[in-house]
Amino acid sequence: KYFFPFDSGSRSSKTFKPKKNIPEGSHQYELLKHAEATLGSGNLRQAVMLPEGEDLNEWIAVNTVDFFNQINMLYGTITEFCTETSCPVMSAGPRYEYHWADGTNIKKPIKCSAPKYIDYLMTWVQDQLDDETLFPSKIGVPFPKNFMSVAKTILKRLFRVYAHIYHQHFDSVMRLQEEAHLNTSFKHFIFFVQEFNLIDRRELAPLQELIEKLGSKDR
Fold this sequence. Notes:
It is built from 8 helices and 2 strands. The protein is mostly helical. Residues about 1-15 have low confidence and may be disordered.
């Protein structure tokens, strides 16, 4: 179903972050299964809603991990087309350019190529997801007070990978016949962040027209 250009000779090997697994048998795993089942119904607006009686933080955590895995996979299919030469800056069309800073290792935003930026971004997200104090995997371990702001930052940054793929690599996506997969994943992502108001409208501007189009089809 998925096409992976696992070309050991390219620099792509580093960009593939290991899939973040949710432990089987855990409550979060049950939530993920619920999410997958409701997605199968085809109604995405309904699929993103908080299941009755569930903890909002946990629902956002499970979905954030899932989106990270989806984007990781989607970017993986076009990594050979996203190079230092083809994408010397991280952009989403001519009007939007992103500079990387994570606030700890790189405090002052740096201008870098798209593959470098996405590598920084995915590594940074992976580190957040692996941090048990931020994303507790054990039942009964509370989420930290700043969880929502951490999740919002992660989702805001993951959006930029979608934006880059749509603006700079959509022709490659179409050649690989991955557009339906990309559109479904992005639509799910957008409905989810809209449902819980997780990304500022200004941040979504690079794909505003697409977002409106996806939303209007679903009313």
